[in-house]
Amino acid sequence: LPGHTGGTAIGILVRGEFRTRERAFRLLLSWGASFFPGELSSKEVCISSALRSGNRRFAELLESELGGRRCEIVDLPSRPELNGKTCVVEEYLKGRDEYIVTLESGRKESLTISGANLKRRDRTPDDCGYCVEFKNGRAVRHEFDSSEECREFLTMVDERRRPAVTEDDEARADRAAAELLAELDLEDAVVKQQPRCIDKGRSPGKRRAGGKKCKRK
Q: What is the CATH number of domain 70-123?
């Protein structure tokens, strides 16, 4: 989405050397980054920047509907086992209206597929395709074949980070709760036993000095 100045992440990347930032462009596109009308955020500006840097292949990719996007393979009769699998569009074959894609799982197989067999499926936190975990000082990349696998892994990591609650912890919590309840009961009892002051000689709109007497409930 555009920021308060009207700029976007893609627009910021365009300002630099395009050739060195193509990887970042592709990452943003796979996460669903959008183009917006404007001086630095439109698709036309990004295409012009790619052409100026001599990257015609990437410019043609941006001109296509699914260029750089993460997609799901659908209705592929020649290889039905790939239906439902996710891939990333790497290149657009303009003359044939086909895309070269790379599968996300397995051997990272490269395929040529018609646009009719691709459905855009942007990355989301619950369906990101992969996750990089920093564990014991090392970065470990986990890849998932489905959004269900991704969610299961994220749930497992979240539970693993939670502090373990032992029986001693539960016992201490129970004791603290019991002590608090006891204090509240004691305080309530003291309030009930306190004397109540009544002014016997008081009349409406008039107070008599020395007329107060304390009477216990």
A: 2.30.30.30
